[in-house]
DNA sequence: GGAATAGTGTCTGTTAGACAGTATTGG
DNA sequence: CCAATACTGTCTAACAGACACTATTCC
């Protein structure tokens, strides 16, 4: 049946056809935790990519871990739903939030015809940690992605959503500059490299620093940070030898498999 | 309100909250039309990227052009809805079909709370041309994307959907091997270049043939077609001098802005 | 021969990749 | 001095980009 015919016969007001029972937005909240390593001198922290989950208390999937989320209302777009939920869950606004996809397989939710929209968010570590301890109404957990995918029984099709989100964040990490969401405004190339490697373990570049700094084709992604006198700004937070600080520009190069 | 609380208070059966009035899938059907050029010798055809639209006959937006689509049913996923609609509209199965996104801005459809899911499909030219002439129940149009975006008044938010789909297909054309959807199984590098340029007008590679054929980093995207004796297969369909035929492999390289 | 497409030659400067070596500084 | 990170030197092969040049075939 064509759209027009359906719409014609359905008319404006009458509820002739069955409609869904709910349209939630579920959010995969990623964060990067840093943990100091014990070393004899200063060293880069080890990073872990973690995801926030909430333990369900009621049917269905009571006791299972699930992605945070909530139902969309008539007066908001799904992106607004997701932003609202993200704010409610973290208490913080302005995190990176991106649409992932729709999950609508029949039977995915035993409560009925429920079509879920997945988003993923990149949240700063302290936000989720605060949330984790402050909220006594819900049990909140922070798990590494590997743990969550391999060892946890997730509710609904949330394992599939998380797996898709993981693939997407890896892709975005290499194709765009979302790495900046996990970094302070000024950072060293060592930090950037760690962030990329944490999200994309396969990423390995022997000459990373040189390629970023000295190839024309990648100029414009990053720029050196200088103080008001034009002197390069350095940091020795993670190393004995001070390292140049960088920041992202607004430029994101266009990639192509053909050129 | 958290998801759990909402779900708890909502219960299993009762329809306490308002739910959407319909969840359609709308499909941006792209095709590449070829038109021979009048030239004194054989020459490559000119290509145009076109999109199929349907003229609405009833409220709302009666008389306006709209994307084909239809409402999702409870027993199917949205991808299945889209595939079913694509089949119904074209009479053909197996075209490339890909999810684009969700369109849920309040007020986007005067009939009520209607959340649309956009897909895009890459369809062979003859399919849409057959459809165009065969169907007398609906007025069907094939427009270049430029025309549709700049000169037509599209129904609903379909201009926005089309604009998003156009951006996406350009991105996919450069990041993946969807160019093969617009090409016969065996094709010349001239044809491939034309296809890419038609979809991505900015694409310009002076040494396209050489880069594709003789750089190690891109080896594996394409392979030469050979006959059973191992002899390279050539085509002179579009040129006096026969050109080597190629086909896509299953390999798609991974891109990165950092390496 | 002309037209149209399909390549190849050639040159310069840039980049990739590997790996060794030097620099800096707190402990 | 040692450890840990931050670079720089160096060398070779590969690649990018520009542009001229040759190749093939039908008309």
TrEMBL record, chains A, B:
Compositional bias per record (Basic and acidic residues), positions renumbered to this chain: 1-19
UniProt cross-references to InterPro entries, sorted A to Z: NUDIX_hydrolase-like_dom_sf, NUDIX_hydrolase_CS, NUDIX_hydrolase_dom, WH-like_DNA-bd_sf, WH_DNA-bd_sf
Pfam families named in the record: NUDIX
Residue span(s) of domain Nudix hydrolase: 36-166
GO molecular function terms listed in the Swiss-Prot or TrEMBL record: hydrolase activity
Region (Disordered): 1-20
Keyword Transferase attached: no
Keyword Hydrolase: yes
Keywords from the UniProt entry: Hydrolase
Family: Belongs to the Nudix hydrolase family.
Annotated PANTHER family: ADP-RIBOSE PYROPHOSPHATASE (PTHR43736), DIHYDRONEOPTERIN TRIPHOSPHATE DIPHOSPHATASE (PTHR43736:SF1)
Protein name: ADP-ribose pyrophosphatase YjhB (NUDIX family)
Organism: Fontibacillus solani
């Amino acid at each position: 049946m064509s759209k027009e015919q359906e719409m014609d016969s359905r008319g404006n007001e009458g509820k002739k056809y069955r409609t869904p029972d709910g349209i939630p937005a579920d959010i995969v909240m990623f964060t990067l935790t840093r943990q100091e390593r014990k070393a004899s001198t200063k060293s880069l922290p080890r990073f872990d990519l973690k995801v926030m989950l909430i333990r369900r208390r009621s049917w269905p999937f009571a006791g299972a871990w699930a992605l945070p989320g909530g139902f969309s209302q008539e007066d908001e777009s799904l992106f607004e739903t997701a932003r609202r939920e993200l704010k409610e869950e973290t208490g913080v606004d302005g995190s990176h939030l991106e649409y992932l996809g729709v999950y609508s397989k029949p039977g995915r939710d035993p409560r009925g015809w429920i079509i879920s929209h997945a988003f993923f968010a990149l949240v700063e570590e302290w936000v989720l940690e605060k949330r984790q301890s402050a909220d006594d109404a819900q049990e909140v957990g922070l798990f590494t992605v590997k743990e969550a995918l391999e060892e946890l029984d997730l509710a609904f099709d949330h394992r599939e959503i998380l797996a898709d989100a993981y693939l997407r964040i890896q892709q975005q990490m290499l194709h765009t500059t979302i790495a900046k969401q996990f970094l302070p405004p000024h950072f060293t190339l060592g930090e950037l490299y760690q962030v990329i490697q944490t999200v994309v373990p396969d990423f390995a570049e022997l000459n990373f620093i040189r390629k970023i700094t000295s190839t024309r084709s990648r100029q414009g992604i990053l720029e050196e940070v200088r103080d008001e006198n034009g002197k390069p700004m350095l940091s020795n937070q993670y190393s004995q030898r001070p390292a140049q600080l960088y920041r992202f520009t607004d430029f994101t190069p266009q990639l192509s498999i053909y050129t």
